[in-house]
Amino acid sequence: MSFFSYSVTKTIKNVSLFIVGLVFVILLYRFYQIQIQQHNKYSGIAEDNRIRMVTLEAPRGIIYDRIGDILVDNKFQYNVFIIPFEVDSINKCYQKLGEVLGLDKEIIEERVKKNWRGRFKPALVAKGVNMQVLSRIEEHKLEFPGVIYKLDPYRSYPSGVNLTHVLGYLREINSSALKRLKKYGYNYGDLIGWEGVERQYESILRGEKGYKYVQVNAKGRILGDLESKENIQPQPGNDLYLTINRELQDTCERILADTSKGAIIVIDPDNGQILSAVSKPDYSPEIFSGIINQEVWDSLSNDPDRPLFNRLTSAEYPPASTFKMMAAMGALENNIVDSAWSVNCPGYYKLGRRTFKCWKEWGHGRVAMEKSIEQSCDVYYYRLIRKMDLDLWAETVRKFGFGEPTQIDLTSENSGNIPDKNYMNSVYGKNGWTEGYKLNIVIGQGEVLVTPIQMAKFISALATRGKLIHPHVGLKYFDTEKFRTFTTEKDSIESFTPQTWDIIEESLYEVVNDPAGTANLANVRGVKVYGKTGTAQNPHGENHAWFIGYADNGQKKVAVTVFLENGGSGGHDAAPVAGKILKYYLKNIWTDNKTSGQNNG
Predict the structure, then answer these.
(1) What is the pTM of this model?
(2) How many domains does the chain have?
(3) Residue 404 and residue 383 in one domain
C-alpha cells in the first residue's frame, strides 16, 4: 500500500470516528435535555397522552308552574360518540358500529361530519342508546377504537301540556353565539336555550359542567378511571318557577284544540303574571328532547299553518272593534264630545261618493256612547273620528303601550303599528290619503296592527283603570339557599278622569250582560264579566275573531284575551271561548283559592 493510499484511508477513518462521536455527543445532549432539563415538559405531555378528560354535562334547572307542578324535568340517557383521531379504519369501524346501532354507515359518517369539533374531540353519533347496545359495544371494545359512550341529561316534559311557545327549546350553540358566549364557558357541541324561557333564563337554568379523568393506552382505549386525579362533579342549574297554572294551561289548550290557529292569554291584571298562554298550532315539546329527525323538522318549518310561529308575541293583526273605546276615551278627555252625544245609525255612512257600512245592515238607530260600545256600532265611530285629529287618536292609543313591545320575558316580540299623520304621509304621500282612511283606522282596521300580548296589556289597563303592567311568565327561581322573586316595572295612565273610566267600565259590562250586547256568550253566572268583541276583516280569507275581557269576583280580577285567526266573529266564536275559560277559572281556581300569593296559582 502506498503512503498516499494509507493516508487517505486513515483520514476517512478519523472523519468517520469523529462523525460517530459527534452523533453520540448530540444524542447524549438531547437525552440530557429531554430526560433532565425538559423532564417536566415531556412528562406532562406523556401524562396528557395517558389521561383523557371526560366532560360531565350538568343537568339544567327544573321548570315548575306557579304551584310546583313540574313542567320541564331532566332525564338521563346514554349517548355514543366517536373520536375521529382514534379510529383505525373508518369504513370498517363505521360499518360495524352501524350494525350495532341499527344505522347505515352513511348516516354515521353524516353525523360525525355534522358534529365535528376537531380530530381529538368526541362527535355525537347516537342518543338514547339502550343497555343491550352498550353491552355489545363493551363486549367488542377492541373492534371499536375511538368509540365511547357516556351518560348525559336531556329535557323531558311530564306535565301533559305543550306550552310550546313559552317553554321554548334547546339546540346546539352555533358559531356566532359561541363568539359571544365562549367567555362564559360554552364550547362547540353545548346545548343552549334557543327560544322561550329556556333562552330568556339561560343563565339561571344552565349549570356548571363537571369532569372525570380516565386512563387510556397508546391506542386511546380506555383502561379505567384514574384514581390519582380528583373528579369534578357537575353543578345543576337553578330551578325556575313560572307564573303559569298548569291546570288552567291544560284547559285552555284543550278549549283551543278544535281551532286551527289562534291565541289565548289569561293574565292577572294587577301584576302582569301570565296564568296561561296558548299559541295554536303548536307541537309537542318532546320533539326537541333528542336528535331531531330532519323530516320532522322540515314538516314543522314548512307547514303552512306555521306551528313554530309564536302568535302570542309575534303575530300582528287588526284589532277591529276592540279599538273603538280608544276614540271614545280620546274624545271624552279632550272635550270633543260628551257621553250623551248620539248619532243615528241607518246601517251605513256616506263620505263623498263612498259608502261605509255598519256591521249591522239595518242599523242600530240612535245610539249614544255607551250603547255604541255595547252594540259595537261602526257608524257612531265613523262620525266621531271625523271630529278628531288622527294624531290625537294615535296619542290616546299609545298611552296603552301600543306601537312598541311589551318587553315580555319571551323572545321574538313585534311592535304592531299605530298610524299617525307622519306614518300615513310616509306611506301614501302628504296628499295621498284622505278622511276615508281614518274611518277604517277608528274601527281597528286598515293600517292598525297589534299583537295578542299587547291586547292582554290593554285589557289589563282597562280592568285596573290605567295600571300598565309588565306581562311576564317568570315568577321566581331557587338560588342555592333561597328563592329570588322577579320584580317588574309598573306604570299607570294618569290622564283619564274617573268619569271616563266609569263610562268605559259600564259599557264593557253591558257588552257582556245586556241582551243587546255583542258578547253575551262570554257571560258567566256568579261573577261579573266585562269585555269587548272584535271581528277583523281579512282580505285573504275568513275574518279574524277577537274577545278581550275580565272577570271580577269582588276581591280579585282576571283578564282574558282570545284571538281566533280566520275564526269567524268575535261575538259568535271568540266570546264563548272566553266564557268557557272564565267558567273553569271561577269553579276550579277562585273557588279553590289557588290564586292568592306568589306561591299559588
Answers:
(1) 0.86
(2) 3
(3) yes
